[in-house]
Design goal:
The chain has helices at about 10-15, 65-70, 105-110, 115-135, 140-155, 170-190, 195-205, 210, 225-230, 235-245, 260-275, 290-315; strands at about 5, 20-35, 40-50, 55-60, 75-85, 90-100, 315-320, 320. By secondary structure, it is an alpha+beta fold.
C-alpha cells in the first residue's frame, strides 16, 4: 500500500464525498470495543482520531482487519489503509482495510501534524507573541510574557472545546490567535477600545483550558481533569491571572496610570464575563466596552469555525444545504463565492 496516498481523516472524508478512493490514514486509537451484531456476529469497533477529525470503523470477524485489531490497544498510534467511501448508514467507512502500529518516527510526525498544520500553528504562535509584545502597558505586556514563557508548550497543544469549535489538539492556539488578530483590527476602527486590555483579554480569556482541555504530549484525546471538572476554565483563568500578576515587579509601576489594581480588575472582568451571559457560564455579564467586544469576537470566531466544520464534515440534505447543527441553531447553507470580475 506504499503507493497509496497518506491523508488526514478530514481529507479522506472530503475525497470520499464524490467516490470511493484508496488511502492511508495515520491516527491514534481513541476507542476499541468488541461488540456483537444483532445476529451474534462479533466485530471490533475502532474509533481513530488525528489532529483534523475522527473516524469510526468496524472490523468483522471474517476480515483481516479483525485479526489486526486483536493486537491493538487504546492509545496506540496506527496506520489504516483501505478503500474509503461514504456509507449512508455509518458516514465515512472503509472496505478491505488493514491496520498496523506506527514506529516512533511516524508517531512524532503524527502529533506534529502535516507540514501545513505545523506552518499554520507556527504562524499563529508567532502572531500571538508579536501582538503580546506590542502591548504598551508594561504590566499587561509583562503578564503576557510570563504566560507565554511558562505555559507556551501547553498552550500550543490545548483544545478550545470538546465538541463545538476548535475541538482538537492545537485548537486553543488557533482560536486565540484569530481573536487577537480580530481585536487588533477592531481597535483601529473603534478608538474607544483599550487595545492593550482587549488583546490581553483575548490571550487570557480561555487560559483555564490549559487544564480543562489539554491533550497529553503524545495524544489527541482530551482527558477529563479534576481541576477542570470542579472549577471550569473561567475560575481557573482568573486564578492563573492572579498568580502571574503577583510575580510582576509592581513596585516599579506605582506612579503610572491607570493604577495596577484597576488594570488587574478590568482584565479579570474580561476573563469572567467573556461568555456574555450568566446562563452561558459567566459569573458576571460584560460591563465595559472591552468586555462586550471580547464576548462578540469570541462568539464570532467560534461560530465561523462551526460553519467551516459543518461544510467539511456534515452531509448535504439538499444541494448546498447541510444538515442542522444544534450549536448553530441552523442548517448551514453553502456560502456565496467571492466575485471574480472579467479578465
Amino acid at each position: 500500500m506504499s503507493a497509496v496516498p497518506l491523508c488526514s481523516i478530514a481529507a479522506v472524508r472530503d475525497n470520499a464525498r464524490t467516490a470511493s478512493a484508496p488511502a492511508r490514514v495515520h491516527g491514534q486509537v481513541d476507542e476499541l470495543i468488541k461488540r456483537d451484531s444483532s445476529n451474534g456476529k462479533p466485530y471490533w469497533e475502532l474509533r481513530l482520531r488525528d489532529r483534523s477529525d475522527s473516524l469510526t470503523l468496524r472490523a468483522w470477524n471474517d476480515s483481516d482487519a479483525y485479526h489486526d485489531c486483536n493486537g491493538l490497544h487504546r492509545g496506540d498510534c496506527i496506520e489504516v489503509a483501505g478503500d474509503f467511501a461514504m456509507n449512508g448508514s455509518f458516514g465515512l467507512d472503509a472496505r478491505r482495510w488493514r491496520a498496523r502500529v506506527l514506529d516512533d518516527a511516524e508517531c512524532l510526525d503524527l502529533f506534529r501534524g502535516s507540514e501545513m498544520d505545523s506552518q499554520c500553528a507556527e504562524r499563529d504562535f508567532e502572531a500571538v507573541c508579536a501582538l503580546a509584545s506590542s502591548l504598551l502597558d508594561p504590566r499587561l505586556r509583562g503578564l503576557a510574557g510570563l504566560f507565554i514563557e511558562e505555559f507556551g508548550i501547553r498552550f500550543r497543544r490545548a483544545a478550545a472545546a470538546r465538541h463545538n469549535h476548535h475541538a482538537h489538539r492545537g485548537g486553543l492556539l488557533r482560536h486565540t490567535a484569530q481573536m487577537m488578530r480580530s481585536a487588533d483590527v477592531l481597535c483601529g476602527i473603534h478608538p474607544v477600545l483599550n487595545r492593550d486590555l482587549l488583546l490581553a483579554g483575548a490571550l487570557f480569556h480561555d487560559s483555564g483550558k490549559l487544564w480543562e482541555m489539554c491533550p497529553p504530549e503524545r495524544g489527541f484525546e482530551i482527558p477529563r481533569d479534576l481541576r477542570g471538572e470542579l472549577l471550569g476554565h473561567i475560575p481557573i483563568g482568573i486564578e492563573l491571572v492572579n498568580a502571574l500578576w503577583r510575580r510582576l515587579p509592581l513596585d516599579d509601576w506605582k506612579v503610572i496610570q491607570p493604577s495596577s489594581e484597576d488594570v488587574r480588575l478590568h482584565l479579570l472582568h474580561l476573563v469572567a464575563s467573556h461568555h456574555g451571559e450568566l446562563q452561558f457560564g459567566s459569573p458576571v455579564e460584560p460591563k465595559t466596552p472591552e468586555a462586550v467586544a471580547l464576548n462578540m469576537i469570541d462568539n464570532l470566531d467560534a461560530r465561523l469555525e462551526m460553519f467551516a466544520m459543518a461544510y467539511a464534515r456534515h452531509p448535504e440534505i439538499a444541494p448546498g444545504i447541510h444538515e442542522r447543527i444544534k450549536a448553530l441553531n441552523s442548517t448551514p447553507v453553502k456560502p456565496l463565492s467571492s466575485f471574480v470580475g472579467p479578465t
